[in-house]
């Protein structure tokens, strides 16, 4: 039978403390021996080992501390004997911290500070201070000047009625047995002090550092109070500060509810659980939604107000947790897809599909031409009739005749047009200033179901940009020009997911949506946003590597793409260039061609390029 010893945590801490002192104090200019205070127990409390071990690490990692010494139960410090630490700073200054450590379970009554209480009496510690000062000149143990001694009473408990003490000096008002005791002691919370900087007082979520002084000038305790601090390590410091902040002198109190615990007595409270609870506070709600921002899948940030425009029901989904996270900066909904670039990702560009304007004259198809607001007299660029899209949609369903905009052409423009005149009189194009919304284009296509309909955007009097088509695109391919590059800033690659199993058979639209929208794990807010975007057809589906699908899955994918298109969803499909004709014939839409890799791309980004081989070559 074998036995395995496990060290007691306190004993292990003692050992760590001993090792730390050995490692970090051997650089001291000289070792000093301190006399143990009479009546102190050698192993003392755990604090006398844990605190030095902690500050050994703190001082050794502080760039401003050149050297330090430590002792416990030091007789030189009287009642401040528990832990004594002297540090030497990089600027040559020496400081001494003398700590009295008090561990108690109950709150510390304020009355204990002004009476003869054995643990917390200020009179007791003032006497100890004066004794240390008297003996300072006799001692050769410290390099620090006495004014650089810092005396600290440290307790794990909290001070009674601490919420009434602020950052301004206020009178300590102790009570004993229901009677008020007159006192001339003033107290305040003190954050900006030398002790806090080096001892980390007040750095954590709990703890308050107090400074004390006498109300009467010329007090014999004045020097003691200048060098004395009272620190309470209380667990609820932040909560009590928040509650005090909410106190508005009898007016309504506002609370930020962090945890829903002990809610039995809050039935009449107005609880802030989600954004909708703030609507009653109109001004605050407006400020919040107009200043906080969110990012969907790593895209450019938008204001919370813009997100809510998708659907007002989101106010019931955005909880206090999301609001707090938004306060720290841009809040991310879903995964940041921009972090999923492959190792050898190369930025690419997507070209516009440009078409010669002769297509208007030579094809008997219907064209909707959208143009920018800054284009004047656009109708002069066409030798066919033109009609405004709004007038066309208004008059066409009623069977009324449409009056076309008369054109004024220069004599040179009318040369050689007579032969086409008879044909041109029956043709027209629909002009859409500022753009043609998808809904309007769909309506026009329904009204002209026997024609091929095309939406193009006016670039100049020679070039159009193709946007979309209904019907055959076979003939317009003959008018396609060489492309100009357009940086694609709106496309975000996503992680590769294996889909072939699902698409081996065809599915209805609901099955397709359920599958595609459940691929990626999401929290409740992201799930709600995706559901709303799907309902409003504001999602874009990216089908990458279509040519890499096995034969048994191609039919299912094509069926899914057509189902989604009929429902009004936008989609992008990518494949190798040799699949271009197949895609165009299958979906009756023109295909974009992504710019090819340049020689520089191939040289700089290929994982096993000749450059990499040369860099590892070894001379014979």
**Largest beta-sheet characterization:** 8 strands, mixed
Rounded mean pLDDT score: 73
User: For the largest beta sheet, what order do the strands appear in spatially?
Assistant: 1-2-3-4-10-9-8-5
Q: What overall geometry do the principal axes of the alpha carbons give?
A: elongated
Helix run count: 20
The quaternary state of the protein chains shown equals single chain
Any idea how many domains? Answer: 4
Radius of gyration: 40 Å
Descriptive overview:
With 620 residues, the protein is of the alpha/beta class. The protein folds into four domains: 9-240, no CATH class; 275-333, no CATH class; 354-409 and 419-482, no CATH class; 502-589, no CATH class. It is 29% helix and 17% strand. It has 20 helices and 23 strands. The strands form six sheets. Strands 1-2-3-4-10-9-8-5 form an eight-stranded mixed β-sheet. Strand 2 and strand 3 (94-102) form a beta hairpin. Helix 1 (9-25) runs parallel beside helix 2. The protein is elongated and about 115 Å long. 20% of the residues are buried. Residues 1-31, 39-44, 234-243, 261-265, 398-424, 484-497 and 608-620 have low confidence and may be disordered. Keywords: Membrane, Transmembrane, Transmembrane helix. The chain crosses the membrane at residues 12-31.
């Amino acid at each position: 039978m074998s036995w395995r010893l496990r060290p007691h945590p306190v004993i292990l801490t003692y050992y760590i403390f001993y090792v730390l002192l050995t490692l970090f104090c051997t650089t001291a200019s000289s070792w000093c021996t301190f006399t143990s205070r009479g009546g102190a127990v050698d192993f003392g409390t755990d604090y006398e080992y844990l605190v030095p071990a902690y500050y050994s690490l703190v001082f050794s990692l502080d760039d401003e501390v050149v050297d330090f010494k430590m002792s416990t139960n030091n007789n030189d410090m009287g009642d401040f004997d528990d832990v004594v630490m002297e540090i030497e700073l990089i600027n040559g200054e020496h400081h001494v911290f003398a700590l009295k450590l008090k561990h108690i379970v109950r709150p510390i009554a304020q009355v204990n500070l002004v009476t003869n209480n054995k643990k917390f009496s200020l009179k007791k510690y003032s006497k100890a201070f004066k004794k240390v000062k008297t003996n300072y000149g006799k001692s050769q143990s410290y390099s620090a000047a006495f004014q650089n001694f810092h005396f600290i009473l440290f307790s794990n408990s909290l001070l009674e009625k601490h919420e009434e003490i602020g950052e301004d000096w206020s009178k300590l008002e102790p009570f004993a047995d229901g009677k008020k005791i007159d006192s001339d002691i003033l107290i305040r919370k003190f954050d900006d002090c030398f002790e806090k900087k080096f001892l980390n007082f007040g750095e954590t979520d709990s703890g308050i550092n107090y400074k004390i002084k006498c109300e009467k000038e010329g007090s014999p305790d004045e020097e003691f109070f200048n060098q004395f601090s009272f620190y309470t390590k209380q667990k609820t410091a932040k909560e009590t500060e928040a509650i005090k902040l909410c106190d508005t002198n009898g007016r309504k109190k506002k609370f930020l509810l962090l945890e829903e615990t002990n809610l039995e007595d809050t039935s009449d409270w107005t609880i802030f659980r989600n954004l909708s609870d703030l609507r009653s506070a109109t001004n605050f709600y407006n400020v919040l939604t107009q200043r906080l921002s969110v990012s969907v899948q790593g895209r450019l940030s938008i204001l919370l107000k813009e997100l809510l425009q998708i659907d007002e029901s989101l106010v019931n989904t955005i909880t206090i947790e999301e609001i707090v996270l938004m306060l720290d900066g841009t809040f991310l909904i879903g995964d940041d897809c921009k972090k999923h670039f492959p190792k050898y990702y190369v930025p690419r560009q997507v070209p516009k599909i440009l078409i010669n304007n002769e297509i208007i004259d030579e094809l008997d198809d219907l064209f909707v031409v959208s143009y920018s607001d800054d284009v004047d007299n656009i109708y002069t660029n066409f030798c066919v009739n033109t009609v405004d899209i709004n007038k066309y949609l208004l008059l066409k369903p009623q069977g009324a005749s449409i009056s076309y905009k008369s054109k004024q052409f220069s004599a040179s423009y009318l040369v050689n047009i007579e032969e086409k005149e008879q044909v041109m009189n029956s043709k027209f194009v629909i002009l859409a200033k500022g753009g043609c919304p998808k809904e309007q284009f769909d309506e026009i296509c329904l009204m002209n179901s026997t024609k091929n309909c095309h939406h193009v955007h006016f670039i100049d009097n020679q070039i159009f940009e193709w946007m979309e088509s209904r019907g055959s695109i076979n003939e317009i391919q003959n008018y396609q020009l060489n492309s100009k590059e357009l940086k694609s800033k709106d496309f975000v690659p996503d992680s590769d997911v294996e889909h072939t199993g699902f698409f081996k058979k065809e599915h209805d639209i609901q099955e397709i949506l359920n599958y595609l929208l459940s691929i990626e794990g999401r929290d409740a807010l992201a799930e709600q946003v995706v559901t709303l975007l799907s309902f409003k057809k504001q999602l874009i589906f990216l089908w990458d590597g279509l040519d890499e699908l096995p034969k048994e899955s191609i039919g299912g994918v094509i069926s899914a793409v057509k189902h989604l298109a009929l429902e009004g969803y936008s989609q992008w499909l990518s494949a190798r260039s040799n699949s271009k004709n197949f895609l165009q014939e299958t979906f009756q839409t023109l295909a974009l061609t992504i710019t090819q890799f340049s020689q520089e791309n191939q040289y700089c980004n290929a994982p096993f390029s000749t450059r990499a081989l040369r860099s590892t070559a070894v001379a014979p």
